[in-house]
Specification:
about 240 residues, mainly alpha
Amino acid sequence: MHESLETASSTSQPLSNDFYWNHLVLPSVLFVGVLIAIEWFQLDRLLAGFIYDNDLHSWSLRSNYLLEEIIHKDGRLLFALMIVSLIALYFAPRYKMHKRPLAFLVLSILISVISINLIKKISGVPCPWSVDEFGGTQHIMHWFNGFNGQSGCFPAGHASAGYAWVALYFFALVQRPSLRFHGLFFGLGLGFIYGFAQELRGAHFLSHDIWTAAICWLVPAALFHPFFGKSVSQSEDSASSNP
């Protein structure tokens, strides 16, 4: 991050109209397509059924030390340390010329995580381990049948602590475009680790994580125009020529 901040270009060009197509429309179509496929092929139930131990009638990995203590509990601590470090950079005099991109990054991450956890408070969608066919007592409820005002497991809160960092893609787009996919893969990778670990424990269905990834992408994409709508450090054409 230090290098990308220090080597940011000062060239200013208008925000390309293609930005909205490439970063809002196409990703939205992709997310919808994936969610339709999950529902059509019942991938939520199939994956949960594959993980759930029918012989023991339990989620054998629910209390696994690596999944519960390291990835889940310590993962929360890692997220807190990372976001506090970002806020510290924002207030550091050395980076005063980069306050706007840093503010964008911090807000994108926080809004994504907070929004997802607020939705969980009203979704009423049960975790796999709470569903009757997987050892629980509740009937399975798809995300589109939720929102009954009760606290639930949809979307995936812990995965948001990873997927929220896809905002680094947009941060790099205005600071150092050649690193934008590094930021994207970091966020996707961390989100996948957090999300899949919870799926293995029985805490979430696959669709919960897909929705979390979608929200974490669309939040910084929507915030990009208010922050950088008139000018950016590099045009998308420049970014495309420097993969």
